[in-house]
């Protein structure tokens, strides 16, 4: 099978194993072939050349993405983000610099995967500053033992990564925390952490809260009926029959009652609702 024919085969979707297997079967490019394709893309914006450059480097994207499997994110998502980085690298690659595409693309591939990991590792973003982002991907590999850092280890990591010791301690605390559902789950178990919502006082039965709720309902009803009184009799009757009656009428029922078409009833209802909303918002 020629390289041109191999590159024309569509990659399978829906099965990550089949996708990886197909990506590794795609032929690699020689330095001369890569340079020729890169020149075509750089000078003539040849999209076919760009496609071949991307496909021939998918195996490298997969290899890099697998290195981030320890963050608990799906491998297909990591590969997808890495492929986006590869496409950005291919677009910006200059064949006249004298370097291979893989050396240039590794930065872009990792950058896209890093952004994806930071956005999705936790519900609350764990790294916001440049120093925190640097620490996030280096702190685990810098640890020499399980558990919390000693003061000497904190100082060593800070010195190696060029950040303040306080930043190392803050990021270590963030990495050792975990997301907790606000409402939690109703489990009768002494070992289950209490959800944050359980610490909040229930103010619904307080007399002041009940009075405020009652006054609010009364005020809203007064506003609604005052706005209804500003409509003509037919519009008011249609809205009451459609929305304020225990047994709501259909457009067909009202059309028969007023001897008009259902479309005409719909138009009257729409206009009446617009007037009502305007009066309530005033």
Describe this structure in words.
This protein is mostly helical and 282 residues long. The protein is built from 15 helices and no strands. The protein has helices spanning 3-7, 16-25, 31-44, 47-56, 58-66, 75-92, 101-120, 130-136, 139-142, 151-161, 165-176, 207-229, 233-244, 251-258, 262-281. α6 (75-92) crosses α7 and α8 crosses α11. It starts with a helix and ends with a helix. The mean pLDDT is 81.
H and E string: HHHHHHHHHHHHHHH
Q: Tally the beta strands.
A: 0
Binned strand content? under 5%
Q: Figure out the total of helices.
A: 15
The low-confidence parts are none
Helix content: 55-70%
Main sheet attributes: strand count, strand direction, barrel closure = none
The chain-level mean pLDDT equals 81
Q: Which outline best applies?
A: flat
Task: Provide the gyration radius in Å.
Answer: 32 Å
Structural class per helix/strand content? mainly alpha
- Report the end-to-end length measured between terminal Cα atoms: 74 Å
Characteristic key phrases:
282 residues, mainly alpha, 15 helices
Task: Offer a quick outline of the entry.
By secondary structure, the chain is mainly α.
List the helices and strands and how they pair.
Elements: H1 3-7, H2 16-25, H3 31-44, H4 47-56, H5 58-66, H6 75-92, H7 101-120, H8 130-136, H9 139-142, H10 151-161, H11 165-176, H12 207-229, H13 233-244, H14 251-258, H15 262-281
Helix pairs in contact: 3-4, 5-6, 5-7, 6-7, 8-11, 10-11, 12-15, 13-15, 14-15
